[in-house]
Amino acid sequence: MLTLTPPNSSSPSLHLLSLLLKCAHLISANNTASATDLLPEIFHLSSPFAASPADRIAAFFAHSLHSRLLLHFLSATPHPLIKSITLSSQLKSFHSALQTFNSLAPFVKFSHFTANQAIFESVHGYDRVHIIDLDVMQGLQWPGLFHILASRSKKVSSVRLTGFGPSSELLNQTGSRLAEFAASLGLPFKFNPIEGKFGDMSELELTRIDLRANEATVVHCMHHNLYDMIGSNFGMLRVLSIVKPKLVTMVTQNIEIFETGSFLERFIETLHYYSAMFDALGEGLSRDNVLRHQVEQQLFGSEIRNILACDDVGGVSVSRWGDELSRFGFEPVSLSGSPAAQASLLLEMFPWKGYTLMEENGCLRLGWKGMPLLTASAWQPSNYSCVTNNSNIMRN
User: Fold this and answer.
1) Which of the four pLDDT bands, split at 50, 70 and 90, describes residue 142?
2) Residue 376's closest CA among 342, 329, 349, 328?
3) Does the N-terminal or the C-terminal CB of the chain have fewer CB atoms within 10 Å?
4) Letter string b/e over residues 92-128, b meaning 16 or more CB atoms within 10 A of that residue's CB
5) Given this model, what pLDDT does residue 86 score?
6) b or e along 147-168 (b: 16 or more beta carbons within 10 Å of the residue's beta carbon)?
7) In sequence order, what are the residues at sequence separation of 6 or more whose Cβ sits closer than 8 angstroms to the Cβ of residue 204?
8) In degrees, to the nearest 5, what angle opens at C-alpha 87 toward C-alphas 84 and 93?
9) How many angstroms separate the CA atoms of 156 and 360, rounded?
10) What percent of the chain has pLDDT over 70?
11) What mean pLDDT comes out for the span 206-210?
12) Could you tell me the pTM of the whole model?
């Protein structure tokens, strides 16, 4: 991973890092003219196809800084434009890159395996199961759960999946694929697509979720930095208190970016995080590996740009989520048993040894060379009292 200490070395990569940090510092100080003057040299020295991970990372960060500066000159409120462009033109490529990422590294599988095992245990003894996925995307997670549900000695009589997403077209495609797979297992299945955000639902819109008293309802939430997929944080907690699921599974990226921090702090936190991600992805893959380039450009590059250019400061730590979930009547469920065992088996499938698995307060953290990158947690209702008038509740 990269050192973030401004270097006194003649190394090209260290010089490049020094230029990036200087540019970010200038932007943080609102010296946009001087920051703009630095970018041509950074672009000249970096490339998304370079052999050095540092040079590739620098290229993506430079493009993100350029986008931020461009938006500064074009508009004082650029966020909706950027997010609509991201969703309309990059959503399909993002899903494709996510599938590729799933084949190259354990991060996606880790989130799926741990959540699925926790969900499977929580619905033990129930024959009617309702899953609410707050950003179903391509539904890559759910065939694994369908397999273990279909193998139960007491057969499941009904599985419903309510999938949220930003595109009705992609939701319908996902539903068709999952229905076909469930049918191949003889699993009774129905898909309920909802275009929109769980946390933005009104009382009237909650009827679209179609809650039923005789079902075991679980909610799954995976945060990522490409686009906002849950809506209002407060709204999400409010809706959870109404839905009253048996279990909430949550996977969060270990990148903490808050509105109160400076741009330079956000830049350094983002650089730390994605340096580790680039390092982990590049381990064992050749310089010219096409699949690695696809993930770095279409997935990591888009996330970096969204954080740095669009001021998407939606990163919320699992501990902070835990505090707020506790206020709404939830308590943590330890993932140290079967979910941890599943995660350990998963890491054995990958030949390189830099991945680390840590348990902390019942959560599982998947990291690279000791740096946590992804955290999985699970929560169950302790009571259903809803605290809605607390001024410290998270808000977007």
Assistant:
1) very high
2) 342
3) C
4) eebbebbebbbebbbbbbbbbbbbbbbbbebbeebbb
5) 47
6) eebeeeeeebebbbbbbbbbbe
7) none
8) 150
9) 33
10) 86
11) 93
12) 0.87
Query: What are the angstrom distances between the C-alpha of 145 and each of 7, 122, 193, 310?
Result: 49, 12, 19, 35
What single-letter DSSP state applies at residue 225? Answer: S
Place of tokens 């400061």: 313
Q: Tokens 């500064």 belong to which residue?
A: 72
pLDDT confidence band for 174 (50 / 70 / 90): very high
Helical segments of 192-248, H only: 233-243
Distance CA 64, CA 305 (A): 5
Dump the DSSP string for 117-169: HHHHHHTTT-SEEEEEETT-TT-TTHHHHHHHHHT-SS--SEEEEEEEES-HH
- Whole-angstrom Cα distance, residue 228 to residue 225? 8
Is residue 296's pLDDT more than 70? yes
* Residue corresponding to tokens 């819109």: 205
Domains of the chain: 12-76+257-309 (no CATH), 107-254+319-381 (3.40.50.150)
Alpha-carbon distances of 37 from 13, 17, 128, 168, rounded to whole Å: 19, 16, 61, 43
Structure tokens at 29: 């100080």
CB atoms within 10 A of CB 84: 11
Residue 253 vs residues 37, 88, 135, 226, 364: alpha-carbon distances, Å: 33, 24, 15, 12, 12
